[in-house]
Amine oxidase
Amino acid sequence: MTSRDGYSWTPMDGLKPGVPSIGVIQPAQNLSSHKDQYDVIVVGGGYTGLTAVRDATTAGLSVLLLEARDRIGGRSWSSNIGGYPFEMGGTWVHWGQCHVWREIVRYGLTKGLENSFDLSHGVNHFEFNTASGSAIMSHDDEDALLASALQKFTNVDGAYGRNIMPQPYDMLHVPEAARYDKMSAKDRVEQIKHTLTPHERAGVEAFVLLCSGATLETMSFLEFLHWWAMCGYTYQGCLDMLITYKFREGQSSFAIRFFQEAMASTKLSYSFSTPVKRVANQSTGRVEVETTSGKKFTAARVICTVPLNVLNTVTFEPPLEQGKVTAAGIGHVNECVKVHAEIADKTMRSWSGITYPDNKLMYAIGDGTTPAGNTHIVAFGTKSSHIDPEANIEETKKAVQGLAPGRFDKIERLVFHNWHKDDYAKGAWFFSPPGLLTDHLDAMRARHGNVLFANSDWALGWRSFIDGAIEEGTRAAATVKAELLGSITSPRARF
């Protein structure tokens, strides 16, 4: 089935909106005409919503899933084109991410992963294009350069962040850490610029921008320290956990397992292409949810998984507390652009490169070999040099070619999803501006009457990652089960 989301381009077909995905659910709804009351309504079918739906239905609760898109997965989904999966959003997983790995084991997918990197053949080098010139170096030299730069960047305590953030699930366990949330990455670079070589400065700036999808001025230094701590305080940990292991069949092959298990429980009703416009706590203790088409449903509890940048598009009654409203008004800052390119050059499978700061796409790696034998390149751009890839396909091709001048001239295919212009995301994965987390994280996580808010955007651990989404879905479902299973008299809630 083809989703409305995403774009593809080939020389023969030109630019086409919509790409195929096994995450598209058909039929689009299974609602009963006489049923509008449920134990739980889950708003949103990303990994947070899917986890909550799965956990609640398998516990025996009747659940309604309302999803604005025509597919599951939210900001993590894959498109299978010509027998090859292109990851449109969140991609990489690792056994160091405890929640996601629990699910990979649950669904028997431990042998379903593959390595994005293959350095066994081809050019096998790193290409570094900066304002001070171009350089070709080995991947060992690439790693040494970035490791040195990131150690300088994170070493605020003489221990590369271990002392200032010893427990990353409790980010402010050391109260002094809060002051780093008032700093931007730009502030930190200015502090250490005298210690950095020109290559180190370009490398560290490009790497942290890859993580934030923002600008150096608008990204929180503390949030990068949190990523660093979650990765074990090392560059190698970042490489392993952030950009190495992915599903051989694509993210949607993982997400569909959650949905199928929930369906097998016979407790799941769902409706796709169904945006929600209003969520109201009622005096009866139930919650009413109204869709943009005017349909109304009620439940004992609602789990709202709407991302932070979209939260203010939903009306809540009574109005949300000011801290949550303020956080949603500030929003996160990630405007990452992710573009897949199929290149007719087999030797580039073992290539990686940074072109910074003068290219619209900044960082890229060889990420696979397509069935046609071409190299799959995945490239990233940021808000610092923003591009809407569908707006001018020639400009997008030029940005891809600029990553490796003379090597990427023959582009066979482009595939991408413009998250910045996505009405149900308004940005890519979460990355906070200075001050947002210390001022508003608790408010972002707080419930509102019988409405619980769960999203990777305010997870405690792998915030903004698939793991964080599962963490949040697990938390919300556990709360709902604890509150409802003891009070609902229907036998269906107990078995």
Summary: The radius of gyration is 22 Å. The chain has two domains: 2-76+251-330+426-486, 114-245+337-418.
